[in-house]
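Dear support,

I submitted the protein below through the web form. The confirmation email said the job was done, but the results page showed an empty box. After a refresh the structure appeared. I'm attaching both so you can tell me whether what I see now is the final result or a partial one.
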Amino acid sequence: MLLEFSHILAFSALFVNSLFDVFSEKGDVPSEFSLIAIIGGILLHGAYAFSLGSVTPFVWMLGIGVVFSLYGWFAYWMGMWGGADALAMTVLGFAAPYSVSGVGMVYGFSLFVNIFLVSSVYALFFTLYKIVGSVELKRAFMQRLSDNRRLIGAEFLVIVIFSSLQSSLMRSFAIFGSMSVLLLFYHLSKEVEDVEMSRNLSVSEVEVGDVIDTEGIDIGRSRERNLIGLLFQKVNVLSGERLSKTRFSVIEEKLGYSEIVGVTEKEIRDLKDQGVENVSIKEGLRLIPVFPIALVLTEAGFTFVRYISLL
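What the results page shows now:
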């Protein structure tokens, strides 16, 4: 029952976060629900290990939780997604690390795979929706293919060579077709990011919370600590500033600050004072719904073992 409650807690937190992500004007997701799920998951798995009289379930939870967290925050640092998405990965790692039937690798790995499968489908439908309704995007995509024809030709050549090495003609066609579609989708998604996920506005139209492209603009912005940065800061104070003198300071420097920060009222005034007329507003794909969906699919038995058996 303890494991079931931990999984329910993870889903509940991610579901509530999804509502904020989808329906809030700026896609702002509060961190409180994720933190409750993370702490709750750790406590519940600790209680489960205690009830069994074995530390093994707790160690498994810690190991899987750390792996999910490291990937989530590494992806955040690389600009693949936002801090709320990294926190969602941390929630799954600590609150739903393995099946309610007991420890094992299959569940966690399947959850990881399902996250990417669901996010790929989610991004695909979003991209197709955008290109159907945007003449500008269609033109930009064709122009991208034209401008990068040598690179794309080389990419297709690699696909052809790899496909020709397969054991059967049918498998070669399948590999060539799937990889070609993925290649075109990649280039299309880059145009969606450039054309549909950013827009130019006059400074007078910019609202507090909008994420602006600050390249070439000096607004005197100070870096804003995220949850990792705040935790590091508190631990550093408790340690008498000794932590900042260790190699952990490198981790804090890389992962402890938010890269995606909404503009403040003061920064908008500074832009106007500098005579800046237009800025580029950046928008991101709201991915949080991917995580509870992936969790439900994994709970329903859609595991990588099942996927392999279908091949």
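Response: this is the final, complete result; the empty box was a page-load delay. The first strand starts at residue 198 and ends at 202.
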